[in-house]
Amino acid sequence: MQQDLEHLLEGQGLGVSILPGKGRCLFAASRDFYPGEVIMRQDPYVYVPGNSDGESRCDRCLCSGKLSKCSACQVAWYCGSSCQKSDWNMHRLECKALAMVDKDKRKFVTPSLRLMLKLYIRRRLQQDKVIPATVWDNHRLVEALVAHMSELEEKQLVLYAQMANLVNLILQWPDIDIREITESFSKLSCNAHTICDSELRPLGTGLYPVIAIINHSCAPNSVLVFDERTAVVRAVQHISKGSEVFISYIETAASTATRRKALKEQYFFDCLCIRCAKMGTPDDIKESAILEGYRCQDSRCFGFLLRDSENEEFMCQECGQARSKEEMGKIAGEEKDMLEEASTRSNHALSIFKKIENLQEELYHPFSVILLRTREKIIKILMDQEDWTEALGYCRLTISTYERAYPGFHPLLGLQYYTCGKIEWLLGESDDAIKSLSKAVDILRVTHRANSAFVNDLVSRLDEARAEAYYKLSQCT
Ligand SMILES: [Zn+2]
Ligand SMILES: [Zn+2]
Ligand SMILES: [Zn+2]
Ligand SMILES: [Zn+2]
Prior knowledge:
alpha+beta; Serine Threonine Protein Phosphatase 5, Tetratricopeptide repeat; binds zinc ion
């Protein structure tokens, strides 16, 4: 099977190599790839709906909206009979098993537990030839994934073992191997991907065992996006023949220390990418101090601050002014109190987040991602309240940070231009809308499928804005 897969990848100009200390790597083996080109696409081996906001989604197509529960198990949701029918092959065994679980205990059947149930059900269905197995779609690919069992903390191991016991209790198959399921939970934790819509909102989780071969870089040359539930890897830089293909597993707009910690904790490796290789150099220290560090006392100065040798003050590396740890600690304390308040008083979220923003403006560098995240929350609330004028002001404030933090073709940068352009258009600022939407198109045409509904919608908004500007111009002359 492995040879068949390699043969198939070869046909697409790709190759898999095993490098010592790194494991499997995907290469552009026999050709170059250019920005916007699809490197690889794969349907999930198994997937499950579920996102952080707990909204129900169709088990088959992951849409939200008008859904009905599967009457037998009361766990799965469907948008209609066509999705329910196409999912029945997979859901039949799961439904039967879930229906046997006590009704009040079914709420403990979390998305990750369901993903595991589906993993074992799919393996069985392929063994019994109810569902065909192919080179891209078979359990052997799952077996080849790394599990990192020896690196797991005791606490995590116990949790996975408890979850494996639950899977066993639900399925009640005689030949089940709890140790193997425990290992599979660990595999899912470092190999499964969050499925997102075109605007990068999470919809669910899926396992794509061939995509999982692609290694991480904090400055990746490709991006993973989703076309419905199909994972698509697209080049965002020129990848020359012989180079390794990289995607990013984590948020890349973070200091080197933060990125390396996240990668070590969830994926168990020390990143050796070109960005991490600069760790400790003056460039890297400066970049990290801007992304997560403090601002200069002088509000007109954009210098970054570093701790002095006595560890009592922070010195601006631009103008030499010092800020005392005590003064900054006081603001940080107020910020912490406010953040706690935000989590408990959600009905006053806007005014609380604006207070947090004020404190963070005093504390952090103007291009800090901490400040950026707070402003993103404020934009979301303002847009929900349809306060477009203020939302646009905030959106524009974030653009320069986005441009710094996400170089090149990054979907988040494209999406932020898109949001800005949509609001400008809504407020009748068509010249600005054209500029923002054009920038969005330039980026999102590379990261997303050019003729997808999402990109078509964006392009038609841009055409509309251009037509209106042209009309206005013709009226003036
Ligand atoms: Zn559906
Ligand atoms: Zn059911
Ligand atoms: Zn890295
Ligand atoms: Zn300064």
